[in-house]
């Protein structure tokens, strides 16, 4: 028993000391428990293949397809308005509702670019509310956050009935409303930082507005061209004149050349704009096979324009984007004079690798894997399939696990997800953390430590009251969340909470919810929750900003959550 307790203490200490490597800490815990036979082989297998855990993994993989649709980007364009109050309310409402059903990390990631590039408000006034709204929204449903799904897997592992889709909703709504009002009041004390202009050592991407495009007659802001991820509209070439900088109110005309700067991997976003073609498309080449090259000093292309060289005929390739260190490039790509050392991203044809003049003109760096965006029936399948699965689960028609298995298979068969993409994005660290936590729970039970809690309770003259025990469980989970991560906190404190509920003959659901909501209460530290970390640097916040805003939010959250848990579930 004492050795297992030592492993439990070691795990907590390790997570505090090595905050950036929780998977390694839990991995060592798993090896110690199994190596010293504190758990059986069957328990190890059941922990790794736990239905709740597999449900979480499938949910995260299926949401990858949703990230490749334009759904979130379209909604994002409707959020930013000139009025700060209107923008704040729209942002909070959209983020809360989205995070209740989608991966809140994906929601925050989608909104980062629109907020940072918006011309009306300082990003630092909106990014922290964005993260907090994502955390709060995740408390509304079973699938709202990975923490809830982890707790559900632990509940199933403990032999209790699985949590229902809306078991969290009543308490979550109380928390969202109370903390939303508190956050709105506190936002006046958020810092107001100007957006840092990124170094322009990025690729220049040339696009053209075709006749009949739905973009024509609308402003840059109305078309959502300011709300792209890692791409920024730097100039417009119109009738031989260069418009820069580009105002958000500038109206799009037919045949405008829109010049973007940014991450070439995000170029597929531009395919979602009707009638906006890329230079490579004009040359008849697709964008799913990109190669990055550097122009040699002895290249025959030097001081010539792409238009005059007959680039497509020479190399069976077309230039998608160009980057030149140390010197600005303006205008459309076809008119840019090539210089030695230019970095080009090429859309290449089938004959590119067979051309004998490639090595004479270019140094080939590597392939560039673009973020492929879905369109047509694949986009509809991803969106309707995902929300349909969630709806069927919420109505109790099909279990969430079964629905996600069928959806995942459909996404793979139709090409909405590729096997290489799944392997690359498989959350192996999270899998290891949860499986190890489940195994640790088995180890604590096998050692008799849970029974020892009952004996410890008898040492008190009047016994430990369920209310005080509930508060202790919540506070411990909250503190551990701020010190380590939300997932680790939930995994570690669940067996303790369940053991206390059993020894006190209290309602275990109340203690389960205390762990779930306590593990999501990460507002004070930028390191306890991934969305906080995402906005920490983007908004140029300091730790004091999180403490100043997050501590009052944490107090309100804790009081409201515990009160609502007692009212809804009872002790």
Structural class label:
alpha+beta
Total count of strands: 9
Helix content: 40-55%
What fraction strand?
A: 5-15%
Distance between the termini: 29 Å
> How many domains?
3
Q: How many helical elements?
A: 24
- Uncertain residue segments: 196-201
Largest sheet: 9 strands, antiparallel
User: What number is the mean pLDDT?
Assistant: 82
Indicate the radius of gyration in whole angstroms: 27 Å
Described by the principal axes of the CA atoms, the overall outline is: globular
Tell me what you see in this structure.
The protein is of the alpha+beta class and 571 residues long. It folds into 3 domains: 1-197 and 376-571, no CATH class; 203-262, 2-Layer Sandwich (Alpha-Beta Plaits), CATH 3.30.70.1450; 290-368, 2-Layer Sandwich (Alpha-Beta Plaits). Helices cover 54% and strands 9% of the residues. The chain has helices at residues 2-17, 22-35, 41-48, 51-67, 71-77, 84-99, 104-117, 127-138, 146-157, 169-186, 279-282, 306-309, 311-315, 358-361, 376-394, 400-413, 419-425, 428-447, 449-458, 466-483, 486-504, 508-519, 530-538, 543-569, and strands at residues 203-209, 231-238, 241-243, 257-262, 276-278, 290-295, 317-323, 343-348, 362-368. Strands 1, 2, 3, 4, 5, 6, 7, 8 and 9 form a 9-stranded antiparallel β-sheet that branches. Helix 2 runs parallel beside helix 18 (428-447) and helix 8 runs antiparallel to helix 10.
């Amino acid at each position: 028993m004492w050795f297992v307790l030592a492993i439990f203490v070691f795990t907590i200490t390790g997570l505090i000391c090595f905050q950036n490597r929780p998977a390694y800490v839990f991995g060592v815990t798993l090896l110690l428990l199994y190596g010293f036979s504190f758990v059986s082989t069957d328990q190890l297998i059941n922990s790794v293949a736990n239905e709740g855990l597999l449900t979480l993994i499938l949910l995260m993989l299926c949401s990858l397809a949703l990230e490749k649709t334009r759904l979130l980007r379209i909604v994002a364009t409707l959020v930013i308005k000139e009025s700060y109050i209107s923008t704040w309310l729209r942002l909070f409402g959209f983020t809360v509702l989205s995070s209740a059903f989608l991966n809140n990390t994906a929601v925050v990631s989608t909104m980062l670019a629109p907020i940072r590039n918006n011309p009306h408000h300082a990003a630092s006034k909106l990014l922290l509310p964005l993260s907090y709204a994502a955390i709060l929204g995740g408390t509304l449903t079973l699938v709202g956050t990975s923490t809830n799904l982890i707790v559900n897997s632990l509940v199933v592992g403990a032999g209790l009935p699985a949590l229902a889709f809306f078991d969290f909703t009543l308490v979550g709504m109380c928390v969202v409303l109370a903390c939303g009002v508190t956050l709105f009041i506190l936002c006046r004390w958020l810092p107001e930082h100007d957006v840092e202009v990124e170094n322009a050592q990025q690729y220049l991407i040339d696009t053209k507005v075709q006749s009949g495009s739905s973009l024509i007659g609308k402003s840059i802001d109305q078309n959502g061209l300011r709300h792209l991820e890692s791409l920024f509209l730097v100039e417009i070439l119109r009738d031989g004149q260069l418009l820069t900088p580009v105002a958000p109110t500038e109206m799009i005309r037919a045949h405008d050349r829109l010049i973007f700067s940014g991450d070439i991997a995000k170029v597929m976003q531009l395919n979602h704009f009707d009638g906006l073609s890329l230079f490579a498309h004009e040359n008849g080449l697709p964008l799913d096979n990109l190669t990055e090259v550097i122009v040699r000093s002895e290249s025959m292309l030097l001081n010539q324009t792409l238009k005059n060289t007959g680039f497509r005929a020479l190399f069976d390739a077309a230039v998608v984007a160009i980057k030149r260190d140390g010197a600005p490039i303006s205008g459309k790509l076809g008119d840019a004079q090539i210089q030695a050392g230019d970095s080009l991203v090429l859309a290449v044809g089938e004959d590119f690798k067979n051309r004998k003049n490639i090595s004479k003109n270019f140094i080939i760096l590597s392939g560039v894997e673009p973020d492929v965006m879905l369109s047509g029936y694949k986009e509809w399948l991803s969106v309707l399939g995902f929300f349909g699965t969630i709806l069927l689960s919420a109505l109790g028609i099909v279990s969430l696990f079964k629905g996600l298995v069928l959806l995942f298979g459909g996404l793979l068969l139709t090409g909405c997800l590729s096997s290489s993409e799944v392997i690359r994005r498989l959350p192996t660290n999270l899998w290891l953390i949860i499986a190890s936590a489940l195994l640790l729970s088995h180890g604590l039970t096998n050692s008799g430590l849970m029974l020892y809690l009952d004996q410890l309770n008898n040492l008190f003259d009047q016994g430990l009251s369920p209310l005080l025990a509930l508060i202790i469980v919540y506070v411990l989970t909250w503190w551990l969340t701020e010190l380590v991560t939300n997932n680790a906190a939930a995994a570690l404190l669940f067996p303790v909470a369940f053991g206390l509920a059993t020894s006190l003959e209290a309602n275990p659901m109340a203690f389960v919810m205390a762990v779930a909501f306590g593990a999501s209460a990460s507002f004070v530290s930028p390191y306890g929750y991934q969305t906080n970390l995402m906005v920490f640097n983007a908004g140029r916040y300091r730790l004091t900003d999180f403490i100043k805003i997050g501590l009052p939010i944490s107090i309100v959250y804790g009081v409201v959550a515990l009160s609502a848990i007692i009212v809804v579930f009872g002790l």
